[in-house]
Amino acid sequence: MPAAVVTGTQWGDEGKGKIVDLLAADADVVVRFHGGNNAGHTLVVDGQKTVLNLVPAGVLHPGRICVMGPGMVIDPEVLVGEIDALRRRGYLGDDRWLRISEQAHLIMPYHRAIDRARERLRGPGNIGTTGRGIGPAYEDKMARTGIRVGDLFDEGGFRDALERNLREKNAYLQALLGEPALSFDDIHERYRGYRERLRPFAADTTAELRAAFAAGRRVLFEGAQGALLDVDHGTYPFVTSSSTLAGAASAGAGVPPRAIGRVVGIAKAYTTRVGSGPFPSELADALGDRLRADGDEYGATTGRPRRCGWFDAVVVRHAIALSGVDGLALTKLDVLTGIDPLRVCVAYELDGKRREFPPGTQGAWERVRPVYEELPGWRENLGAARALTDLPPDARRYVDRLSALVGAPVMLLSIGPQREQTIRLVDIF
Ligand code: IMP
User: Fold this and answer.
1) How many CB atoms within 10 Å of residue 214?
2) Which of 145, 180, 198 is the last residue of a domain?
3) 3-state secondary structure of 404
4) Residue nearest to atom 20 of ligand 1 (CA)
5) Total domain count for the chain?
6) Which of 59, 253, 350, 370 has the fewest beta carbons under 10 Å from its own?
7) Mean residue pLDDT across the chain
8) Best probe residue, ligand 1, of 9, 51, 225 (max atoms within 8 Å of C-beta)
9) Are residues 399 and 312 in the same domain?
10) Whether pLDDT at 415 is above 70
11) Is the dihedral of CA 53, 57, 60, 66 positive or negative?
């Protein structure tokens, strides 16, 4: 199977980074295809923590080609910082290991300013965005006024586009959002600097990926966020601004759908979400606090505390159906040690009727009530398990029950942050 996609099945933060890092050992190319530095992965290798926001998680394996595809929105300031930080740690030893699509859109300072000002003005009803300018950058892309990585290398074209956009954005920022205007000279100067820094990596990644496929290379597509943050199928409007499903890999990277042989869904053994929006199985109590503390549930990008709750089989079932998930990588099972009994949301109740799948409208999402099933917990520490048979019987029962409820086999089980703390049941490639 030459290509696989890894996709989040909840509200993001499922532990995709660790799984992509693991699977990247068997891949030649690792590709991100949507989103930007709203994503954040914390990777622990040999006890050393690395946080990645933009560069694919394959970068910790020397020699892997890491591709940032056309569907991404890239903040060059953050990317340059990330490249420097990786280099300081001895990664990215060769410029050819990072390829940045000329077609990817640039996040500009006005995107960040607009994102943050709008959130502030929305007050308590805000989306809880990461404030990284993701939404406004995708808006410009769809409005066909965005500036792309390739435009950096056309000085005249870049200057014209920046002048045109800034005129409009400054009027909007000042008149409607009550923000100060941004300086053309300042942005122009900074982006000229990024142009030189990014030049060695800018590429026609679509053509390069086509060549990689033709040569039989193993390609891993790294999804960001999760299915319930998908702009069409998630808990709209409390979603991100891109398509987060496995299918987005095809459009966002520029490969045919049939090129992708396997879909791996990542699910945490409980549920978390950052930002606002519906979360039927949320635990707004001491148990939720305990999950946050034991699972270190703080956003890798913004440091915000994550909301925590029971595993929601309705959400994961939905994600599996949307993305055609072949199997699950179940993460953070170890965090549930000591909680007894455990509960799992098996269905929703909406207006007196039971549903196996979530509703489609915001109003209905707010009215659903979780239907729970109780399972016995376990007391043993799981961190040293290396095979299913090392797990206590109640932990195995929990895993088997989740798998049956969502209708997908478990391919991989993660029981701690280290690479070794993983039980692999199936080879992905
Ligand atoms: P945005 O993507 O910054 O516009 O944020 C929109 C929503 O998606 C907010 O609720 C964010 O907290 C959430 N979000 C965006 N990226 C991630 C992620 O990588 N993990 C978890 N939540 C995310």
Assistant:
1) 8
2) 198
3) helix
4) 12
5) 2
6) 350
7) 96
8) 225
9) yes
10) yes
11) negative
In a domain, 429, yes or no: no
For residues 220 and 144, state if they share a domain: no
CA of 320 to the centre of ligand 1 (A): 20
**If residue 292 lies in a helix (H) or strand (E), which one and from where to where?**
helix 286-294
Q: Enter the pTM of the model.
A: 0.96
Report CA(128)–ligand 1 centroid distance (Å): 8
Are 276 and 238 in contact by the 8 Å Cβ rule? The answer is yes
Confidence of residue 125 (pLDDT cuts 50, 70, 90): confident
Helices (H), 176-204: 184-198
Res 320 pLDDT > 70: yes
Contact indicator for 194, 152 with CB cutoff of 8 Å: yes
Residue 117: the pLDDT is 97
Q: What is the residue with the minimal CA distance to atom 9 of ligand 1?
A: 129
Provide, rounded to the nearest whole percent, the portion of the chain with pLDDT above 70.
Answer: 100
Find the mean pLDDT for residues 269-298. Answer: 96
CB-based burial, 229-248: b 16+ in 10 Å, e otherwise: bbbebbbbebbbbbbbbbbb
323 and 213 within one domain: yes
Please name the residue whose Cα sits nearest to atom 5 of ligand 1: 129
Domain that includes residue 118, residue range: 105-198
Ligand 1 binding residues, C-beta < 6 A: 12-13, 38-40, 127-130, 132, 134-135, 224-225, 229, 238, 240-241, 274-275
Has residue 19 been placed in a domain? yes
Contact 7, 227 (CB under 8 A): yes
Q: Which residues are catalytic?
A: 13, 41
Counting from 1 in the atom list of ligand 1, the atom nearest the Cα of 304 is: 12
CA distances from 57 to 76, 228, 268, 397 (A): 18, 22, 18, 31
Last residue of a domain, one of 198, 216, 235: 198
**Residue closest to 276 by CA, chosen among 245, 304, 315:** 304
Q: What is the CATH number of the domain that holds 69?
A: 3.40.440.10
Place of tokens 């990588």: 329
Dist. CA 17 → ligand 1 center (Å):
15
pLDDT bracket for residue 377 (50, 70, 90)? very high
The pLDDT, as a whole number, for residue 254 is 98
Angle CA(104)–CA(108)–CA(112) in degrees, nearest 5? 115
d(CA 63, CA 28): 8
pLDDT at residue 1 is higher than 70: no
Is 68 found in the same domain as 153?
A: no
> What's the pLDDT score for residue 47?
80
Give 129 Cα–ligand 1 centroid separation in angstroms: 6
